[in-house]
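Quick entry between incubations.
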Amino acid sequence: MSMKASTRQVDGVTIVDLSGRITLGEGSVVLRDTIKDVLGKGDKKILLNLGDVSYIDSSGIGELVSAFTSVQRQGGDLKLLHLTKKVHDLLQITKLYTVFDVQEDEANAIKSFTK
Amino acid sequence: MESTLESVNKAEEMADQIATQAGFDEDVRGGLTMAVREAMVNAVLHGNAYDPDKRVNLSFEQNGRELIITVGDEGKGLEPAEVPDPLAPENLMKQSGRGIFLIRAFMDEVRFRKLEPGTEITLIKRIPGTELDRQEAST
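Done. Structure below.
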């Protein structure tokens, strides 16, 4: 299953709903292009909803890291929402879990951007 | 197999089917198929650099105690000792370099062999419930 991404705005936060697989090739490219588009519009508060992401490989992890650093470089903030167990475990193994701000509830996640 | 992403996806599907037949549970299968995927990506992308003239050799062997998967490429060769530690603070935020680390994390044993030309990686996972697996669990 290829990856799909759609964006929506809630209280000044851009929520990117991702579904499918973030892997080398199409999935990683979709994520990269989506983040580029969002930043291009000047939106710098980004919440990546990974609830429907079934699988991430090392290339996908790299793309998440790249998205995080790109947003930070532009003075913005990128947070992760609704990690599946697989993705959670992968971020733990790679010691990236504490690097990302991981949120479990969308409403609370949106509020956290304004703090 | 051809040096394409399609081969990577095909290898991943084959690994999942064979691991299911071997009796691995879903969690182990997830790690095992990811290890195969990462080994194939290394072979296709870093080894053969998508060269249509270079092939990737993939084999699965099940001897009742272990599942042994071998991935060989025809690339410039890999020196595993020279691969930087992706958990080191200076590498943590790098975009790439986690493939071999993940392979090692999910497999019981990983071996590298230099080919002329290329690299062969052997991934070994002990089958649950076998004597080898019980010895491992008791140590």
